Amino acid sequence: MVERPDVDEASRKAFRRAVLAWFRRNGRRFPWRERAGRYSVLIGEILLQRTRGEAVAEVYEAFLRRWPTPERLARAAPRSVAEVIRPLGLAKRAPLLVRLGRELVRLGRIPSDPKELIVLPGVGPYAAHAVPVFADGRPLPLVDWVVARVLRRYFGLPADRRPNADRELWALAQELVRPGRARELWLGVLDLGAAICRPKPRCAECPLRVGCAFAHSVGGSG
Asked: Is 136 part of the annotated catalytic residue set?
């Protein structure tokens, strides 16, 4: 069993409340957030890998107009897919996306279990959890580089491992989630990390600064 970091429930609750309140006022709007289906969420997550959300929006809409279902994607020519996703620098991933479509057709469904999703072409630990969280609202942990930065700063945790390999961080993320609020919580953390808790953070503007270990360490909690 993986031990979670020694973080008390009061700290976790304060974090949740601050993130959710901030997200309700400041959350970003993207087309993949307006579509609830697993397929559209999965495609969005693959296109978002290593790419800013603002850059993905137009390509995402064009992709789903051309290939709105796994069946259509499975029949696509990799060259056509490459042309659509080239603006994101992802043209080399076109054959992988076509293979993904074919595998989904073979399965006859889009899984909601991270253990089934992670074996699909192009799907890593983050995307495997993002699909059930954002499409189905399941209370699961979600950790990428942005989430890891926010959690590590707030709770004063070491940044000595890649997010995918930091089992303690994933355990903490699981402790943070509550049924019915997972989608809002993780979208809030992602948006906060993009807008405020950047690599060069804007601690003076951050709604988490009062309880944040990093903000206290640099004198930015006042």
From this structure: no
